[in-house]
Amino acid sequence: MKTLVIAAHPNLEESVINKRWLTELRKHPDLCTIHTLAACYPDGRIDVEREHRLIEEHSSLIFQFPIYWFSCPPLLKTWFDEVLTHGWAYGRNGGDKLEGRKVALAVTTGVRAEDYSIDGRYHYTLAQLLAPFETTLRYYCRADYQPFFAFYGAELVPGEDYHSAAEEIERSAENYARFVTALS
Length: 184
Prior knowledge:
Flavodoxin_fold, FMN binding, Flavoprotein-like_sf, electron transfer activity
């Protein structure tokens, strides 16, 4: 079975990294299924039964998104709230659909890696900021939570345009495809 990549970028056409990552993954259709939330649910109304079926048809799951106000984009938060239901994702009676399933995050951030450190600009590591996802998936849903994959941009000042080199972006896309392969 393949990996389901749930891409949750609010404006994928304007994306640099997330768009490039998905382009790379599309070269490997036997590896994964790409599920783009904004394209499937432009009105924000999530078809929970469809999402459950998609997850059940795949062996592993990756949530791919840009760090958005030190969390995930709103549509992905809605997805978590609506899809990870009691009796399906957690709970005693049937809440085992993610149990033991490999789950990972693939995130992009515009700032440098050193900004996400105890001594950096934000005083928190990226792992610390992603802890709510790990807690939900690993401890609540009993998934086999895997280490995350991250691309740290090279913005000089938060909110400015990317300054990442094309080679760095290409290398990250190739490494991401290897990350997805290793998860399968």
